[in-house]
């Protein structure tokens, strides 16, 4: 697509025609007919069921819906998965997806872009306004799909070693996503999409879920490109550690490991309360994520190498420059009163690479003598916590000669300057939802330029399976920098990459 046409579409959607006089669209899926809406030139379907109510089959693989008669309305968002985060409208009956498409003619064969939300494996929802697909679908002439699925204990509580009925419980949330991708394969053509050109993209936990699916045999062939946005999964949770977390969770609930029947009828709110259990490995709230169960996941996604199944899939990996500025409040206790005397101690608990924090501070101060303690704190915690997974994945794919492209978001928040380019910055830029609640981007010219550059590249990648900058190779490490003026740099932050490569990276939850 011509970039000038794309940019004009991305920032001029208010001029799009409205077809209010025409009837709302009705589409026949493999299970029955659904009715959507026409909105600003698009056909929009919200709350499309791809799986049965999971309340009747807790901790078990999802099932496809039963066929229905008549026409079911798909005009409003359906519930999200129950969770500890503040989220309106939750239910165990949460296996629904949403579709924005420029047209429903099957002959169009538009690229399909399926988005998986962040929130680690515990929280989040695609009903968040940041994830609205209308701008991306209209400007890129693509079909955008967003998916909700099971999270936390409902999607990842590992019970396989306690009860054979729940052999797949540690990866139930992943199996939900695979079921959604099967639904797309079987149905997306009648929404104008090409089932043979599906790009999965996801931010934070969504990217990690994608990286995990690249090693899951059941996902093979269901998607054809992948984009991970500040979300990696080098290793999954081992079954022994997962079992220790399960024990802590059950103890919090007062449940017995040899009598799990009460879990099947317990109010879902009580199951969510159990997540307050202390994690026996990491501390804090108990972690739950994909498990190396030797059933649906029989190897780690990127250890000891990139899973061969995923290597033929073109992949784009990205992170933001200041990831931890989103997690660690600049006015909070770790930053309040920060100085050279306490910098090392305060950042030690935020690192995921076991190097001397005092030595790390000395290296930064020698390299960047004009940097403040706060700047070093955020740079080191980002490079030693949020970024290494992406580096490991990109390097593994480069060694396998897999088609790989890397980007970095440098665009600095004009609305919250101390946040810099934080985690989640790329969501609004990729979707064009600059004015949505939760966006750090503002709506100025710089944000619009960065967003147009990112949206254009994502759509080009979805359409052609390649980006317009050099592939990531170990001799150059070419990286697209998304900013008010975007550009390509070789090995940006290479010094930090090498600094933290001196010790192993331990994936949280492993």
Automatic annotation (TrEMBL):
Keywords: Hydrolase, Signal. The keyword Hydrolase applies. GO terms for molecular function: hydrolase activity. PROSITE patterns: CARBOXYLESTERASE_B_1, CARBOXYLESTERASE_B_2. It holds the Pfam family COesterase. The keyword Transferase does not apply. Its EC number is 3.1.1.-. Gene3D superfamilies: alpha/beta hydrolase. SUPFAM superfamilies: alpha/beta-Hydrolases (SSF53474). Residues 24-466 form the Carboxylesterase type B domain. This is Carboxylic ester hydrolase.
């Amino acid at each position: 697509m011509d970039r000038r046409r794309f940019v004009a579409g991305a920032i001029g959607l208010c001029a799009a025609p409205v077809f209010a006089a025409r009837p709302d669209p009705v589409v026949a899926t493999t299970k029955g007919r659904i009715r959507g809406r026409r909105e600003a030139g698009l056909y929009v379907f919200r709350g499309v069921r791809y799986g049965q109510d999971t309340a009747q089959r807790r901790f078990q693989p999802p099932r496809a819906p039963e066929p229905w008669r008549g026409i079911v309305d798909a005009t409003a968002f359906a519930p999200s998965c129950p969770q500890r985060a503040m989220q309106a409208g939750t239910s165990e009956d949460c296996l629904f997806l949403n579709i924005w498409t420029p047209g429903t003619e099957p002959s169009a064969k538009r690229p399909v872009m399926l988005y998986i939300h962040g929130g680690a494996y515990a929280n989040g929802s695609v009903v968040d306004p940041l994830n609205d697909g209308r701008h991306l679908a209209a400007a890129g002439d693509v079909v955008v799909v967003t998916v909700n699925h099971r999270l936390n204990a409902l999607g990842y509580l590992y019970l396989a070693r306690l009860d054979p009925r729940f052999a797949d419980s540690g990866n139930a949330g992943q199996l939900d996503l695979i079921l959604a991708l099967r639904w797309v394969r079987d149905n997306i053509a009648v929404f104008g999409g090409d089932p043979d050109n599906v790009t999965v993209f996801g931010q934070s936990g969504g990217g990690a879920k994608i990286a995990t699916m690249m090693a899951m045999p059941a996902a093979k062939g269901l998607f054809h490109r992948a984009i991970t946005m500040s979300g990696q999964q080098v290793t999954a949770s081992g079954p022994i550690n997962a079992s220790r977390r399960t024990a802590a969770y059950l103890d919090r609930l007062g449940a017995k490991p040899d009598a799990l029947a009460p879990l099947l009828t317990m109010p879902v709110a009580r199951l969510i309360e159990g997540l307050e259990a202390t994690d026996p490995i990491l501390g804090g709230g108990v972690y739950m994520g994909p498990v190396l169960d030797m059933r649906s996941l029989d190897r780690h996604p990127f250890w000891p190498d990139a899973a061969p199944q995923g290597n033929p899939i073109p992949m784009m990996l990205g992170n933001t420059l200041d990831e931890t500025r989103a997690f660690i409040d600049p006015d909070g206790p770790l930053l309040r009163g920060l100085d050279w005397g306490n910098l090392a101690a305060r950042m030690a608990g935020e690192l995921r690479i076991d190097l001397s924090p005092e030595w790390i501070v000395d290296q930064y101060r020698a390299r960047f003598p004009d940097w403040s303690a706060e700047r070093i704190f955020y740079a080191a915690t980002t490079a030693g916590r949020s970024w290494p997974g992406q580096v490991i994945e990109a390097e593994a794919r480069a060694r396998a000669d897999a088609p790989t492209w890397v980007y970095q978001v440098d665009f600095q928040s004009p609305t919250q300057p101390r946040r810099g380019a934080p985690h989640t910055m790329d969501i609004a830029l990729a979707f064009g939802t600059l004015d949505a609640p939760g966006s750090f981007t503002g709506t100025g010219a710089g944000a619009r330029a960065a967003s147009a550059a990112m949206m254009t590249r994502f759509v080009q990648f979805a359409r052609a399976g390649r980006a317009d900058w050099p592939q990531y190779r170990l001799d150059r490490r070419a990286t697209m920098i998304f900013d008010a003026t975007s550009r390509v740099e070789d090995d940006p932050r290479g010094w930090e990459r090498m600094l933290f490569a001196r010790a192993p990276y331990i994936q949280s939850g492993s």
